[in-house]
Specification:
Pfam family, one: Lectin_C
Order of helices and strands: EHEHEEEEEEHEEEEEEEHEHEEEEE
InterPro entries: C-type_lectin-like, C-type_lectin-like/link_sf, C-type_lectin_CS, CTDL_fold
Keywords: Disulfide bond
Shape: elongated
Distance between the termini: 11 Å
Number of helices: 5
Strand content: 25-35%
Number of strands: 21
Protein name: C-type lectin domain-containing protein
Number of domains: 3
Radius of gyration: 24 Å
Largest sheet: 7 strands, mixed
Structural class: alpha+beta
Organism: Cyprinodon variegatus
Length: 365
């Protein structure tokens, strides 16, 4: 198995965020995505010399609807599992309400509400490594960002997701008589920030004074190395150095095989012939096929003439497409190949032709 890690590249040229994005997509995979604290530490550990700050691939959309996330990376916010109280979230107030709370007086139902992230409340941390006491109540009142930082330093994170936020995890005998506030922060937040490569990661590492009430700002994110790697928002038109990344769980096999032989080889020695379902995956494969010894390379795309449809061998739906000319009729003995040069578009080829091919490695979970 090949574990998937981001390989970061520190580019000292000064570019706007959009120019940096274009550069990274042409020469690497994309502007840097940071998916968790492990990525963040690697990014800081390998930071380039005297770079004080640099663009990363996070940007704030002007017209997007805010999206709810859990603070702990990997815990997905699932609509069917939401547990909002009546009339919540209501986003009241002039500065918006983008962070989640529960009510001190209602620990039986643990219903959620939204509140300003800049208010100060006690909070629940979650410790994934403590089998006897998962939830830790912190009485000290902090803003949501500072509560998150505290939990990440001392435990795992702010309590995130319905499976963590259960009354069974609340320590018996816990009392709140001396707590003046009626709300308790949990690891729920909403924003309009998105990653350039369309990654859905909820990981954020903002400067602790960052006003994350601001949404739809149209600004972009940068990492500030002399601030412990914390992130700040900045006008996207300012020119700065930037960080690209390469992510690849694909491998080019420079052997000439028919499509069926290539499929068999990938499944025996790796995982499968490659599937491409997004522009990011397309760019990742492009980085490999540039070194092919044949004009085309096989992908895991084939045509089922009985159903009159193209399909990926991984059973993924063909939702993203990058076809070149498709003049000829689809035939039963056709499969999909990528142009190894030029714009790397897809072409229909007879499956008996012999090309290099791209295998997909298994990802570590």
């Amino acid at each position: 198995m090949v574990c998937q890690l981001y390989e970061y590249h520190y580019i000292k040229e000064l570019k706007t965020w959009t120019e940096a994005q274009q550069y990274c997509r042409e020469k690497h995979t994309d502007l840097a995505t940071v998916s968790n604290m492990t990525d963040m530490k690697r990014l800081l550990c390998n930071s380039a010399g005297n770079m004080k700050e640099a663009w990363i691939g996070l940007y704030d959309q002007r017209d997007a609807k805010r999206t709810w996330h859990w603070s702990l990376p990997g815990v997905e916010f699932i609509e069917s599992e939401k547990n909002w109280a009546d009339d919540e979230p209501n986003n009241k107030g002039t500065d918006g309400q983008n962070c989640g709370i529960i009510w001190k007086s209602d620990l039986l139902s643990l219903k959620w509400g939204d509140i300003s992230c800049n208010e100060r409340y006690p909070f629940f941390c979650y410790n994934d490594n403590d089998t006897s006491n998962k939830l830790h109540f912190v009485r000290e009142e902090k803003t949501w960002l500072k509560a998150q930082s505290y939990c990440r330093e001392k435990y795992t994170d702010l309590v995130s997701g319905p499976k963590q936020l259960q009354k069974e995890h609340i320590k018996e005998g816990l009392t709140f008589g001396d707590i003046q506030q009626k709300y308790i922060f949990i690891g729920l937040f909403s924003d309009t920030w998105r990653w350039s490569d369309e990654n859905s990661s909820s990981f954020r590492h903002w400067n602790l004074e960052f006003n994350n009430q601001i949404i739809n700002s149209g600004q972009c994110a940068m990492v500030v190395f002399d601030d412990g790697g914390r992130w700040r928002n900045e006008n996207c038109t300012v020119k700065k150095p930037f960080i690209c990344y390469d992510e690849s769980n694909v491998i080019l096999i420079k052997q000439n095989k028919t499509w069926a032989e290539a499929l068999s080889y990938c499944r025996e020695h790796h995982h499968d012939l490659v599937t491409i379902t997004s522009p990011t995956e397309q760019r990742s494969v492009q980085q490999s096929v540039k070194f092919a010894s044949t004009p085309f390379v096989w992908m895991g795309l084939s045509y089922a003439c009985t159903l009159d449809l193209w399909f990926w061998v991984s059973d993924e739906v063909v939702s993203y497409e990058n076809w070149g000319q498709r003049g000829q009729m689809d035939e039963c003995d056709m499969s999909g190949a990528m142009d190894a040069g030029g714009s790397h578009q897809w072409f229909k080829k007879m499956y008996t032709e012999r090309f290099n091919f791209v295998c997909l490695e298994k990802r570590c979970r």
